[in-house]
Amino acid sequence: MKFRFLWVGKTRDKCWRSLQEDYLRRLCHFVKCEITAVRDATGNSARETEGNRILEKLNQNSFVCLLDVGGKCLTSHELASEIEKWQSSGLKEIAFIFGGVTGVSTAVAERADFKVSLSFLTFPHEMARVVLVEQLYRAFTIIKGFPYQK
Q1: Topology annotation, domain 2-149
Q2: Which pLDDT does position 150 carry in this prediction?
Q3: For the chain, does the N or the C end have fewer beta carbons within 10 angstroms?
Q4: What is the CA 144 to chain-centroid distance, rounded?
Q5: pLDDT tens digits for 77-92?
Q6: Cβ–Cβ contacts within 10 Å for residue 38, how many?
Q7: SS3 per residue for 44-113
């Protein structure tokens, strides 16, 4: 299985980027990972433009997990269970999509197979990326029974 992260914009802050890379390095011990950053857009049609860029980069066969404020709130153990379900169902690629500052287009939201919320709180995008990657790493340590999650 492969995790693909599609997000709008780059992780510019060196501290967040360092944490992101650290958790990605750890996560890669369990699953292949790839990041695709699409260029952010401005103006009235930014959401649609970014949505089109995301959809262009998305593999047609990917299982799409959209990070969405209205998505399902999961505990770390529930996320681990979801990942186990995805593994046992034979999914080849899970694409985690982060929209831009204005959210995602309707087309991207409709393409999502699963919607998850990281929190009821609002985080900066760079922080949310780190939180997701860390939680995915944590989920695998739960699955494998490693002591990290304790």
Answers
A1: Alpha/beta knot (3.40.1280)
A2: 61
A3: C
A4: 21
A5: 999 999 999 999 999 9
A6: 22
A7: CCHHHHHHHHHHHHCCCCCEEEEEEEEEEECCHHHHHHHHHHHHHCCCCEEEEEECECCECCHHHHHHCC
